[in-house]
Amino acid sequence: MTVDICQKSCKVVKKLIQEIFSTMATSAEDKSSNFLRQFRDLKTREFKLLSAQQFMEVWNHYDTDGNGFIEGSELDSFLTQLVTSINSQDIGPERLDLGSYATVRRKLGCNKKSSHLPQHSVVSPTALMDAKTLLMNAFDENSDGKIDIAELAQILPTEETFLLLFRRDNPLESSVEFMKVWREFDKDRSGYIEADELKNFLLHLLKQSKRDNDVSEEQLITYTDTVLQLFDRNKDGKLQLSEMAKLLPVKENFLCRPVFKSASKLTKDDIDKVFRLYDRDNSHYIENEELNGFLKDLMDLVEEDYDEADLIQCREALLRDCDQNHDGKIDYNELRMLLMSYNQVSIDNPGFEQEDSS
């Protein structure tokens, strides 16, 4: 019931955003420098359906530093051009009309029958900020103040089959499941997902959604190339562990919860929850892919970029320091000691994760 309400609310917000954009029109003359304007229909001013290649062009245009996020001045530029691309020419500060803000505000209320802005109206600075705030509230799913690739795919109308590859509606339960998928598609055990393996993985996602018959071999190759270019941050032609993690999200990294980083002491209940989360087979041990999933979540706390070699090194260090009976697995008491040590370090050295990742 709660999920249905949230989904309906999200649809209402998205509809309101579309209504705001549809009212922000000015007279047409000049083909402007607004990058997004080329993707709008000249008559309706609505966005046309973006192909995978066009989506990548938009991403590369705004992610100017190539760090995998649209943030800071990049985000300001994107949001401003997204809102103003409905206009057929650019708007300079000298032409902004503060009086249009009241009309935009009415569009956000219950007055659904209110008329559109006049044909020659312009966007006020306040209305622009209001639209930007509303858009971030609707689409910045993890509330980090920036837009990642999957969030951009929710904002712009994109080929439905391409959109399915981002799994926003069906994330994995945990990093344990992620590591099982990683192991399944890293067929040659190279420690990377290479182009042919990525193609098989994308086909697998389409089959899960029963849409594989809707995509030709040529489209699948295009999707593979596009996804590789979008997520391969170090441009080595393959996906390492941290890059694949961006493509295949999990519902939550439980270790990111405030209790593990705050000055409060861990409780037995906290430790019980963590142990149950990773002991997926109820064997009373965290082992094999369960242990790898736990290590992946640990590494997500301190590293932006990591590969399987880093995970193996981390595993060896953890087992050396925490596996007291040397059985190659982590039992409840060993996990308790590890988490309590981690929690104590967080209390004694606030912000130590950021220091490690720098």
Q: Unreliable runs, pLDDT <50, ≥5 residues?
A: 23-32, 91-121, 352-358
As an assembly, this protein is: single chain
Helix percent band: 40-55%
User: Quick one: how many beta strands?
Assistant: 0
Alpha carbon gyration radius: 24 Å
Report, as a whole number of angstroms, the end-to-end distance: 43 Å
- The coarse overall form would be globular
Strand content: under 5%
Mean pLDDT: 78
Largest sheet report: none
What letter string, H or E per element, gives the SSE order? HHHHHHHHHHHHHHHH
Q: Could you explain how this protein is built, in words?
A:
- The chain is mainly alpha-helical and 358 residues long.
- It is built from 16 helices and no strands.
- The longest helix is centred in the first third of the chain and has 22 residues, at 2-23.
- The two termini are 43 Å apart.
- Residues 23-32, 91-121 and 352-358 have low confidence and may be disordered.
Report a brief summary of the structure.
With 358 residues, the chain is mainly alpha-helical. The protein is 53% helix and 0% strand.
